[in-house]
Specification:
10 strands; 8-stranded parallel beta sheet; binds manganese (II) ion; Arginase, Chain A; alpha/beta; two-stranded antiparallel sheet
Length: about 300
């Protein structure tokens, strides 16, 4: 920062610096990138602990502490075609934000690139999925998010699986880690149109078996959505609505590795830094590396 200008100049300089925070390994410009990262600092429908709007920045800060080189994947992330376009501007209107996310991802998809969206709360996936009508969807989540409407809002984050079902239809959505469903959701006649793989089931049967049972039902193209509360609170405490008895981080990594080359869109949401001890931020950053690494590696998992 220069030592000359006045405070007004510094304010402009600081705000430019803040908005310029990018994933450290995102060294490519948009035209040359294969992976396009962006943040959506939106958390206005969150019902319990707000603050996932701070998620994108904190994930990027945590990412600064990861090595660019990765032994498992045998790649140097700083050499891979990754671009980070920063955060998109959002207001408090959920429907408008969901529509905006749809538009942003439409542009990235039309340019034949892979979007990686950092939330923000889960509601925004409802806009994203409209660009993946031919795909299967894998969700990591403690909650079924199957309310038709919540607090008078159909774009509430508690409704995103229901919204996604309306786009994709029966038999296309597989949600891993479920352990919280209201009676209202459970009794919804459409509840059975989504495959909910309970956290308890994964614990008892292992992630390999749990995955192999649904693998034949998946389309060639997959959208992968991670609500961080799907992972156990001991490993991912920084979330808005924590639920005990969750998936292991390695369960999620297993699914990413198995599916990576089919995944055409990826998001990571509901990380809420105010309640974190640092581990959730690092895990979210690492999961982004896991996704790109397992797509780009020559190793077999
Ligand atoms: Mn969710
Ligand atoms: Mn959740």
């Amino acid at each position: 920062m220069g030592s000359h200008g006045n405070q007004k100049d510094h304010a402009a300089e600081l705000s430019a610096l803040a908005s310029l925070k990018r994933i450290a390994d995102a060294t490519f410009n948009y035209e040359d990138a294969r992976y396009v990262i962006f943040g959506v600092p939106f958390d206005y429908t969150s019902s319990y602990r707000r603050g996932s709007s701070k998620g994108p920045t904190e994930v990027r800060l945590a990412y600064d502490n990861l090595e660019s080189f990765d032994l498992d994947y045998g790649v140097d992330f700083s050499e891979l075609p990754i671009c980070d376009i920063g955060d998109i501007s959002v207001n408090e209107d959920a429907a408008e934000t969901v529509d905006l996310v749809e538009e942003v991802i439409k542009i990235i998809r039309n340019d034949e690139k892979i979007p990686i969206m950092i939330g923000g709360e889960h509601s925004i996936t409802g806009g994203s999925i409209r660009n993946f009508r031919e795909s299967s969807m894998i969700i990591i989540d403690a909650h079924s998010d199957f309310r038709d409407s919540y607090m008078g809002n159909r774009n509430n984050h508690a409704c995103v699986t229901h919204r996604s079902l309306e786009v994709l239809g029966e038999g296309r959505i597989f949600s891993f880690g479920t352990r919280s469903t209201s009676k209202e959701e459970f009794e919804d006649p459409d509840y059975g149109k989504v495959t909910f793989i309970r956290s308890e089931y994964v614990k008892n049967n292992g992630i390999e078996k749990s995955f192999s049972e649904i693998a034949p039902k998946l389309k060639e193209s997959i959208y992968f959505s991670i609500d961080m509360d799907g992972i156990d609170p001991s490993q991912a405490p920084g979330v808005g609505t924590p639920e005990p008895y969750g998936l292991r981080d390695s369960d999620v990594r297993y699914l990413i590795r198995k599916l990576a080359r089919k995944i055409k869109g990826f998001d990571i949401l509901e990380f809420t830094p105010d309640f974190d001890n640092g581990n959730t931020a690092m895990l979210a950053a690492k999961l982004i590396q896991d996704f790109i690494g397992s797509r780009e590696t020559k190793n077999y998992f």
